[in-house]
Amino acid sequence: MKKVLVVDDSKAIRQIERKYLEEMGFEVLEAQNGEEALKVVAENPDISLILLDWHMPVMNGYEFLVKLRANPEWKHIKVMMVTTENQQKSVIDAIMAGANEYLMKPFDKEMLETKIKYLLEEEL
Q1: Which of 2-11, 43-52, 61-70, 99-108 has the lowest mean pLDDT?
Q2: Domain of residue 84, CATH code
Q3: Is 70 within the bounds of a domain?
Q4: Range of 31's domain?
Q5: What is the DSSP letter of 87?
Q6: What pLDDT shows up at residue 123?
Q7: Is 79 strand, coil or helix?
Q8: 95, 66, 76, 34 alpha-carbon torsion, rounded to 10°
Q9: CA atoms of 5 and 45, how far apart (whole Å)
Q10: Is residue 123 part of a domain?
């Protein structure tokens, strides 16, 4: 079973994403901010995908992404930003920092599932 890490400071968003992901057959891990997420990734190097919010306390999604991509052992992990951040510069910054995909909130299950299937296509 593939592991997915949901990183979002909103418990409600984490619960929605968890429900959708579990219905898709994934094992779901959670973190409330980038700092927590780094610890989860260190303990679970077999994570396949991270759904990452941008705006969080302690360490935001962009800062987390930069730190994640700085570690060569984690380069295989796909990252999808799932955020309300819609400024073109922010989208470009995230992709340049190593995000593989970008999903705007609010989203529905079908949109999430389509993007995940695209991202993990070669692995499913």
Answers
A1: 99-108
A2: 3.40.50.2300
A3: yes
A4: 3-118
A5: -
A6: 53
A7: strand
A8: -110
A9: 11
A10: no
Side chain identity, residue 113: E
The CA–CA distances, whole Å, from 81 to 1, 8, 40, 59 equal 22, 10, 17, 15
Q: Is residue 56 part of a domain?
A: yes
**pLDDT band of 124, cuts 50, 70, 90:** very low
Q: What is the pLDDT of residue 89?
A: 87
Amino acid identity of residue 35, one-letter, is: E
Please report the beta strands in 1-124, taking only residues with DSSP state E, as ranges in sequence order.
Answer: 3-7, 27-31, 47-52, 78-83, 101-104
Domain count, the chain: 1
- Please give the pLDDT value at position 32: 97
Mean pLDDT, range 60-89, rounded to an integer: 92
